Amino acid sequence: MGQVVPLPTPEPAAEERPVLVLDLGGQYSQLIARRVRECRVYSELVHHSITPEAVRARNPLALVLSGGPASVYAEGAPRIDPRIFELGVPTLGICYGMQLMAQNLGGRVERTGVSEFGKTDVTAEEGELFTNLPSEQVAWMSHRDSVTAPPKGARVVASSPSTPIAAFEDPDRGLYGVQFHPEVVHTPYGNDLLKNFLYTVADAPPTWTAAAVIEEQVERIGAQVGSERVLCALSGGVDSAVAALLVYKAIGDQLTCVFVDHGLLRKEEATQVVETFGNHFHVPLVHVDAEERFMARLEGITDPEDKRRAIGEEFIRVFEEESRTLGTIRYLVQGTLYSDVIESGGSGDGVAATIKSHHNVGGLPEEMDLELVEPLRMLFKDEVRRVGEELGLPERMVWRQPFPGPGLAIRIIGEVTEERLEILREADSILQEEIRRAGLYRDLWQSFAVLPAIRSVGVQGDERTYAYPIVIRAVTSEDAMTADWARLPYDLLETISSRIINEIPAVNRVALDISSKPPSTIEWE
């Protein structure tokens, strides 16, 4: 009788043992979760009120306590259950999180009258957090309170000129704290410190990769939908595109994508979507050319909110008509991202919900009795792009800048007409071409042209002109919550302006929007 060889035990999915980031109200809480994932370790952002029992049930590899604007002694300040520190889970406290840890474990936190904000010189000693890092480094501080006595058993391992206790460690209990913010780019060795905590202290395997995400989601999607038919509203953006490809990889021709072309896209974008999905990936695709219907709905409308409502309502009508012709469909693919889940207060538990309780696909009707398939709901935008690259999505679609659902309609300030759409498309195409040629496209969060429906006097060929202006809008941002206007090189701006005016007869003036968000918004409408 032959020897029985035991099958290898499969590696647990990354989600089965996450790093939990406890949100204590800090502006960088979501950024901490992203930085952990950049270290290829899966993380989730959870509310600070999570119970020790709930933490134990998740079996996390590590905990991170975020920063926050409060004082640990203030009434109503965020707290955590002190029993969490007794679970034996490696824990890193950042800024307020460090102070809360110290207060709960017998240390002392005080307002010494000395505050630190911005880049600060830090002197570090050899320890688990600072292994192979320079003893003299720069870190980003943002605090008024300070830890003036560490918890019993903890050793001080870093200091700054104004903060004698800038970091402490208690390896026996797996407790670590830093007063500065390692998650921000202004702390040059911050990612290295996080890696030391994750890899050395928590023994977290760097297995959170695009390939692993695809493999896991394909399995989950197959288990969720079985042999049922699935519908995807394809917008041409990276989120819906990656979601569609993941579902198609899992269930093949059970998926049908519906691309409603409202005629408000940028130059050649509709063609690119059809070419990519219908011809390159061979995904079943219904292409609905509805430009005439949308233009008829927009006739005479100038108010931006009225534009949005008209476009959304017409999208519903077109989508309903097309979905009815496809027969019985039970599931709808949606490109919900983890940032959507966080901002809507979702827990992230499970991958399916009914469309009546949660949806964010612009214009989809709430009365549709469909269950959602959301393969991206635990991914941040940068992770979605990496998955898209792994799936073979063309670079131009993977790195496509965010584009509003109403499209160019809200980049025309005034009534949308065929003439104005054509002018704006050509101007925007020139802008995008020159931005890409300068190698700046991926450095910018968004860059686009705006057409105010006004005219101004100009002189071309010794003749008076009375034509439209074009406004260039280019911004840098991490997440679109705030944005700064991009300092584009003058010679690039000169080239863009010259081309737009020379190549588009209906334009005689180009302006640059140099306002930030806040007080302005990124889009004009």
Topology summary:
Blueprint: E1 19-23, H1 29-38, E2 43-47, H2 52-58, E3 62-65, E4 91-94, H3 96-104, E5 108-110, E6 116-124, E7 136-143, E8 146-149, E9 155-159, E10 167-170, E11 175-178, H4 190-201, H5 210-225, E12 230-233, H6 238-251, E13 255-261, H7 269-280, E14 285-289, H8 291-298, H9 304-325, E15 331-333, H10 338-343, E16 371-373, H11 381-390, H12 395-398, E17 412-413, H13 418-437, E18 446-452, E19 456-460, E20 463-476, E21 484-485, H14 490-503, E22 507-512
Parallel strand pairs: 1-2, 1-3, 3-4, 4-11, 12-13, 12-15, 13-14, 15-16, 17-18, 20-22
Antiparallel strand pairs: 5-8, 6-7, 6-9, 9-10, 10-11, 18-20, 19-20, 20-21
Helix pairs in contact: 5-6, 5-11, 6-11, 8-9, 13-14
Distinctive features:
525 residues; alpha/beta; Rossmann fold; GMP Synthetase, Chain A, domain 3; 3 domains; 14 helices; 31% helix; globular
Tell me what the structure shows:
This protein has 525 residues and is of the alpha/beta class. It has 3 domains: 14-201, Class I glutamine amidotransferase (GATase) domain (Rossmann fold, 3-Layer(aba) Sandwich); 210-398, Rossmann fold (3-Layer(aba) Sandwich), CATH 3.40.50.620; 416-512, 2-Layer Sandwich (GMP Synthetase, Chain A, domain 3), CATH 3.30.300. The protein is 31% helix and 22% strand. It contains 14 helices and 22 strands. The strands form 4 sheets. It has a 9-stranded mixed sheet, sandwiched between helices. Helix 7 links the parallel strand 13 and strand 14 (285-289). Helix 6 packs across helix 11 (381-390).
CATH architecture of the largest domain: 3-Layer(aba) Sandwich
Summed up, the domain count is 3
Termini gap? 76 Å
Q: CATH H level of the largest domain: which superfamily? A: HUPs
Structural class: alpha/beta
How does the major sheet shape up?
9 strands, mixed
* Mass-distribution shape: globular
Oligomer: single chain
Q: Roughly what fraction of the amino acids lie in strands? A: 15-25%
- CA radius of gyration is 27 Å
Q: Count helical runs.
A: 14
